[in-house]
Amino acid sequence: MKLVRIALIALAITASAKTASARILTVNADGTAQYTTIQDAFNAALSGDEIIVEPGVYTGTGNVVVDMLGKTVLLRSSSGPKNTIIDGENARVGIRCAATGNAEIQGFTIRNGTGEITQDNQGNSASFGGGMEIINASPIILDCIFRSNFAIYGGGLHCFTSIFGTISSPILQDCIFEENLAYMGGGMRISNSSPDLSNCTFSNNTSRVNGGGVHNLRSHTICTDCVFSQNRAVLGGGWLNYESSPEFLGCVFRNNLATANPNELRNGESPGGAIYSFTEVGIEDSSPTITQSVFCENQPDAIWPEDSWLDLGENEFEEICEPEAPDGAVGPFLRGDSNGDSNVDLSDAISILRFLFLGADEPNCQATADSNGDGNVDITDAIYSLAFLFLGGDALPAPTECGISELESDISLGCENGGCG
C-alpha cells in the first residue's frame, strides 16, 4: 500500500515535469525572481505549471495568503519548510486549495493562519482551516509544517467535500502539525472526505471541544506510520470519530489527554485519551481498524468505547512510554551493537567487517557501528570493539546502555532503528 502511494506521487511529479506546455514560475520576496508574492505567481499560472519559491517569509492581503484559484499546479519551495514560510499574520488563511485536482504542495511552513469567518451548514458563523483549506480537491502535500494556526473547524487544516462536489482525497506525507488550535480538530478536521496520511506527526495541538489532533467526520481516513503526541481535547485527545471508520497502521499515540469528567458523561463513559468514537442512537457507529500501533500514557485511557475498534494484531498498550529522543538527538541505541541484537559481543565486530569488506547490508543504526565514536565506520571500529571485549581495551563511548546520543558525529551517521529499547 505504501509503495503504491509513493509510486503514484513519483508518477504525478514526473507527469507534471513532462507536460509539454508546463512553465516554471519563480518567486522571491527580494525582487530577484519573476514574482515577489506567491499569489502573483498563481494569478499568472496555468494548470500544469510549476511555481518555485525561494527562501523567505511570505504574507498576503485580504482573507488568504495563497489562493490556488482552482489550478492544478506544482507549488514547491527550493529550500524546504524551515526556510520558506507562509505566514497568515493571525489575520488570514495560509493556503486555499479548492477544486485544484491533484495539485502538489511541497516544502513549506504554514503558520499563524486564521480561518475566514463564514457560515457552517446550520447557518452559524464559523471559520475553517486556519493553515489550509481543502475543498473538493485532492492535492499531494509533502514535507510541510502547520504551526500555530487557528479556526473553529480544523486549526491546522480543514479537508471538506461539499454536497455534489468531487470527493476530497488528499495525500499528506512527512508533514508536521504542531501547536494548532480549534474547537473541532486542533490539528486537522476531515469532513466527508478520504485522505491518506503517511509519516505525519500531530503534537501539542488543542481542541476546545473534540479531536485534539484530528476530528474525523463521515470520512474514511487511512493513517500509516503517524505519531500523535501531547494533543488535548474535551473528547478524543488524539483523535475523534463521528460516523467514521479510519484505518491505523504502525501509528503511535502517546501522552494525549481528554479532559471531560467521566462522571458527567453518559453511563460511565470515558472521554478517550487517544481515540474517542461517537456511539449514539440514530447515527452510524464508528469502527476504526488498528494494526501494529502503540498506545502509551494517554489519559484517562486509550480508546473509548473499548469495544468500538477492530484489532488486526500486533498492537501494544503500555502504561509508560519509552523515552523520546529530543530534537537534534538520535536513538535509542547501544554503542557497539552493530547487529542490533541488544548485546555487544564478537558477532558485532564481525558484522562491521562483513559490511565493510563483504558487501553485507549496512547497519540500521550506523551510530551503533561507530564503536570508537570518531564519526566514521571503518576497520578501527571492529578493532576497538575486539580490544574492549578481549584485551582490556578502553570502554566504548556512551551510550553503553540503551539510550540516546546528542553527539554531532552520531547525528550525522544516523540511527533508523537501534534495536534496543
Topology diagram in text:
Elements: H1 2-18, E1 24-27, H2 38-44, E2 50-53, E3 56-58, E4 64-67, E5 74-77, E6 84-87, E7 93-98, E8 104-106, E9 109-111, E10 116-119, E11 125-128, E12 132-135, E13 140-142, E14 145-147, E15 150-153, E16 157-160, E17 171-173, E18 176-178, E19 181-184, E20 188-191, E21 196-198, E22 201-203, E23 206-210, E24 214-217, E25 222-224, E26 227-229, E27 232-233, E28 239-242, E29 247-249, E30 252-254, E31 257-258, E32 275-277, E33 289-291, E34 294-296, E35 303-304, E36 310-311, E37 316-318, E38 330-333, H3 346-357, H4 366-369, H5 379-390, E39 403-405, H6 408-413
Parallel strand pairs: 1-2, 2-5, 3-6, 4-7, 5-8, 6-9, 7-12, 8-13, 9-14, 12-16, 13-17, 14-18, 15-19, 16-20, 17-21, 18-22, 19-23, 20-24, 21-25, 22-26, 24-28, 25-29, 26-30, 27-31, 28-32, 29-33, 30-34, 32-35, 33-36, 34-37
Antiparallel strand pairs: 10-11, 38-39
Helix pairs in contact: 3-5
